[in-house]
Amino acid sequence: MQKPLYTNTRKIDTQWIFTLFGTAIGAGLLYLPVQAGDSGFWALVTVMLFALPMSYYSHKNMANIVLSSKDGGITDVFTHNLGKFFGLICVAIYFFAIFLNMPMYSIGLNNELGNFLLKYNVSNSNLSQNIWFSFGILAVLLMIVSLGIRLILRFMQFIVIMLIILVLTLTIYIIPYWNGDFISHRHFVLSNYIKGVLMVLPILVLSMNHSPVISSLVIFYRDNLKLHSGQEKTKVYRILQINAFVLFIFVLLFITSCLLSTTVADLSNASANNLSIVTLIEQQHSSLMLSILAPMIVFTAIISSFIGCYIGSKEALRYLFKSFFKNICNLQVKDQYISMLSVFLIFMVLWVCTICNFKILNIIGILVAPAVAFLLYILPVIVIYKNVKCKQYRKVALDSILVIMGLVIIFGYVVGLLIK
């Protein structure tokens, strides 16, 4: 038996918890309070009640379908269980579900960094409108994610620890600014409540989504630690449990403190101007502390999520290119060239999206959340009930709830937009 590459498993477990956590904390968390301002207090409370079990069991199901495979990642699982054609379609959906997060991060980082440099007189104009500024940002980010999995894990641990400290500091610091405007702004109206739930649910799902690195997590423990299947499963489940609980508490405290320290009118203004909640709070309550905290939180949150999404996006895109060259073009292309092509395509699409500066909340609600919901809530259930090897993972009642919630998320935001 091959000797494990890692002996200090506790340290590795901790690094993976930070990686999962960092992948989830990004645009979803930064823009969730902004959407909640339009959705209302009771809609947010309702959605938060389901947040922890939904997050844990949906990601556990995704981990289960990868655990059921002796080799390969989630892309291989799709094609092996769903047939070559439908499997490739699911790999494409998996890719888009993850990749569509990345324009949010590149747009958000470009806008926030441009505003930061202008505010502190580092530049005489807002550089976010300069196409070469966004080019430079993306080039630096892709250099970071090319360092290899060991260095990425260490980097993610460092940046997420920093992010947690910054966000908790902000959460506590703005307590003196709390007011009851968000709670008392509107009376309970059933139609507004339903619309609010439908529109805030997709944003919440995205703010706790760490599916891009689930496949990499399972593959890492399978290939590097050489655990028995029972030990591997226990280890993965434990990491998912700890991460889901910490993530829920973190999101709950942050959202509560942010919403109580601002007004509904200002939240609507932030939505219209593509501003994150921390940028809005900094503008409202000007102080030296906030001027330091706000940009640091935005930068660390976006960078950590960008890295996590890049790992999943590149894995899926490489698989799609391999299938395209092998099965359609009848060509054997080296992995090195496929990786270079994948990186180039990701870079160019992100650069164009950043230049166009699309509205982030619409990207989340209309494109990203439905794709993530299908990937995370519905597709693993389909695989589990189609593959005999996954029989042990079948839980009819729980799986039915996950599918229903997935359908609500897929259609919820658009239906919410149509409700008067």
Second-tier CATH architecture? Up-down Bundle
C-alpha end-to-end distance: 64 Å
If you consult CATH, what is the topology? Amino acid/polyamine transporter I
Strand content: under 5%
- Along the chain, the helix and strand elements come as HHHHHHHHHHHHHHHHHH
Description:
- The structure is a single chain.
- This protein is mainly alpha-helical and 420 residues long.
- It has one domain (9-418): Amino acid/polyamine transporter I.
- 80% of the residues lie in helices and 0% in strands.
- It has helices spanning 9-24, 27-39, 41-67, 74-82, 84-99, 101-119, 131-144, 149-173, 181-184, 190-207, 214-224, 229-260, 264-272, 277-284, 288-328, 335-356, 360-386, 396-418.
Structural topology:
Layout: H1 9-24, H2 27-39, H3 41-67, H4 74-82, H5 84-99, H6 101-119, H7 131-144, H8 149-173, H9 181-184, H10 190-207, H11 214-224, H12 229-260, H13 264-272, H14 277-284, H15 288-328, H16 335-356, H17 360-386, H18 396-418
Helix pairs in contact: 1-8, 1-12, 1-15, 2-10, 2-12, 2-13, 3-10, 3-11, 3-12, 3-17, 4-5, 5-15, 5-17, 6-7, 6-15, 6-16, 6-17, 7-16, 8-12, 8-15, 10-17, 10-18, 11-12, 14-15, 15-16, 17-18
What are the defining features of this structure?
420 residues, Amino acid/polyamine transporter I, 18 helices, globular
